[in-house]
Design brief:
The complex is a heterodimer of chains A (296) and B (281). Chain A is α/β, with parallel strands linked by helices and 296 residues long. Chain A contains 11 helices and 14 strands. In chain B, α4 runs antiparallel to α6, α4 runs antiparallel to α8 and α7 packs parallel to α10. Chain B has one domain. Chain B is mostly helical. The longest helix of chain B is centred in the N-terminal third of the chain and has 35 residues. Classes of the chains: A alpha/beta (296), B mainly alpha (281). Chains A and B meet through α1, α2 and α3 of A and α1 and α5 of B.
Chain lengths: 296, 281
């Protein structure tokens, strides 16, 4: 559904993107992860034809964004971090103006979407009086009109309260389930990506440092956070068991290694063990592992 | 049809903003003030002036003449501020506020977006001038009655014309207002051009006004009086020739061709800059 090919971009002579490529299949929820300034928003900007790529190409459902941006964007709905509406107009008038740029404004379809995003009671109020959550729901409504096939979400849950985040997540998952919606999800909220996305790409300093299924990132090797003194004994015992130190003081051991055995060896070697906490590798760990490789 | 629907959306945005109406309110107050001064302070002086120059009093002190004064002497200096303000905002404000990203994510070309915005500010400009004419005339009618013709006097443009017939005077003044509206589109185009650049909306308005007033000042410098034709503000002032007894159409067509050419050039330049810009957070 979305194909991003070897995108490069420079801002003021500095590389912002260095040959980013990935593909998002129909009905897939794909996450883009990275530090602030890693190049996620630039990638999204190029997909939406707001930013001119230095080189490379983007295809939406086979249509080149560079060659025919209007045709390609007809299938796209998008939401930005802190969506900027016309505050002096009502939510309904904002929808009229924005959706009207894509074609005819269908009142019935618009009201259905407004009801779906739970804004019916406030849709005729001025947007200036909306809370952040309401603005985000209005952004969702405008993105869903008229009937996109792919949603591009740029940090959509930023600033939302936990309830709002859950509502948003359930809504997006519901869209995929009901309508087979394809979603490109740009976020630094790693738990969000972990809970929502099928696949993920990690961008660091303009480079794609990882791409794969979210499930593949999970590491079933036993992980543990160990505190013991003296430190030399801890290091020796961990090395004897083939342990590996990961970011965040996490230690991982080869599959089949019993943590009680590691602790017993430490005690027998004369170490004082003060903490043994089993830790599962999170997406955050993976993110830090990969991004730290290319962070300047 | 689609274009008209989109233009309606653009006009809805423009006229939903309170600052769009600042100019209307100021002109209404200004018209009321000027007419009050005319009636309560200036009437005797006008009557005296009329008698000394053998002009019928009802020509000099009439609602149509008052309308001509309101429009002719306030639009260039006062109106230009509002045209530059609204046109300077039209692109730059949306860029600054982030609205433009929502617009650009829609399947519509940048050229079309600019054409819509340009049409909206041109409509604002022309309707504003007509609004000032209509309300000015309405107030003048209320204050001075419907009697009398039109007396036109502009020494800088070498124009002195008298229209005792009210209908003809009204027609001339209406056509003059339309041409004045076209003239003011130049200020709007300047504001629009600067609005397309990567600058703040206030800077776009100030730049447009700066160019306009520099041109105006240069045009009025005595040693440049033989070169007035090269100044935009002189060409803009050519609307007044419509009020000359024998209308010099050739001169009017020449001036307005130049002005329209300038407007189109400013639009194209603005579009070229806008097209090459990246829009990011």
């Amino acid at each position: 559904m979305l194909k991003v090919q070897s995108l490069t971009k420079k801002f003021a002579g500095k590389d912002a993107l260095k040959g980013i490529s990935f593909e998002v299949g129909r009905g897939e929820i794909y996450g883009l992860l990275g530090h602030n300034g890693a190049g996620k928003s630039t990638t999204l900007g190029i997909i939406l034809s707001m930013v001119a790529a230095g080189s490379g190409e983007v295809f939406i459902d086979g249509i080149s964004v560079r060659g025919n941006p209007q045709k390609a964007l007809r299938k796209v709905g998008s939401i930005f971090e802190a969506p900027a509406f016309y505050d002096y107009m009502s939510g309904w008038d904002n929808l009229k103006v924005l959706v009207g740029l894509s074609g005819r404004f269908d009142k019935t379809a618009a009201m259905e979407v407004v009801e779906r995003v739970d804004l019916k009671d406030r849709i005729h109020s001025k947007v200036g009086a909306y809370s952040h959550g309401m603005r985000q729901r209005l952004a969702l409504a405008q993105a869903l009109l008229p009937e996109p096939e792919i949603l591009l979400l740029d940090e959509p849950t930023d600033g939302l309260d936990p309830e709002g985040i859950k509502w948003f997540r359930d809504f997006i998952l519901g869209l995929r389930e009901d309508r087979g919606m394809t979603v490109l999800f740009n976020s630094h909220l790693l738990s969000e990506v972990e809970q929502m996305c099928d696949r993920v790409a990690i961008i660091s300093a303009g480079e794609l440092v990882y791409e794969g299924a979210v499930l593949e990132l999970r590491d079933d090797r036993p992980g543990v956070k160990l505190q013991a003194e003296p430190h030399e004994i801890l290091e020796r015992v961990v090395a004897n068991f083939g342990g590996e130190k990961m970011p965040g003081d996490r230690l991982v051991f080869p599959e089949g290694t019993g943590i009680p055995g590691v602790v017993r060896s430490l005690v027998e070697a004369g170490a004082d063990v003060s903490e043994v906490t089993p830790v599962r590798r999170s997406l955050e760990d993976v993110y830090l592992e990969h991004s730290s490789l290319s962070k300047p | 049809m689609m274009f008209l629907r989109q233009l309606r959306g653009e006009l809805r945005k423009l006229f939903a903003r309170k600052r769009t109406y600042i100019g209307y309110v100021v002109f209404l107050v200004f018209e009321a003030l000027l007419l009050s001064l005319w009636v309560y302070v200036g009437r005797e002086q006008f009557e005296d002036l009329a008698k000394r120059n053998f002009i019928p009093v009802e020509l000099l002190s009439s609602s149509l003449t008052a309308t001509y004064w309101i429009m002719g002497f306030s639009m260039f200096l006062l109106g230009s501020i509002y045209f530059a303000l609204v046109a300077g905002d039209i692109v730059a404000k949306e860029t600054e506020d982030g609205n433009l990203r929502m617009v650009l994510s829609r399947p519509v070309s940048r050229l079309r977006i600019l054409v819509l915005k340009y049409c909206a500010v041109i409509i604002y400009t022309v309707t504003f001038v007509i609004f000032v004419g209509v309300t000015g005339y309405g107030m003048a009618l209320f204050a001075m009655g419907s009697e009398g013709g039109l007396f036109v006097w502009n020494p800088e443009m070498y124009i002195l014309a008298v229209y005792p017939d009210r209908d003809e005077a009204f027609q001339r003044l209406f056509i003059g207002a339309c041409f004045m509206g076209l003239s003011m589109c130049v200020v709007t185009s300047l504001g629009f051009f600067f609005s397309c650049l990567k600058i703040k909306p206030a800077a776009a308005s100030v730049m447009a006004l700066s160019v306009f007033f520099i041109d105006f000042v240069l045009q009025n410098i005595p040693f440049l009086s033989n070169h007035k034709d090269v100044f935009i503000t002189f060409r803009m002032a050519n609307w007044i020739y419509v009020l000359q007894e024998n209308i010099p159409w050739e001169r009017i067509v020449e001036s307005y061709s130049i002005l329209m050419g300038l407007c189109v050039s400013l639009f194209i330049l603005g579009w070229m800059v806008f097209q090459s810009r990246d829009f990011k957070t």
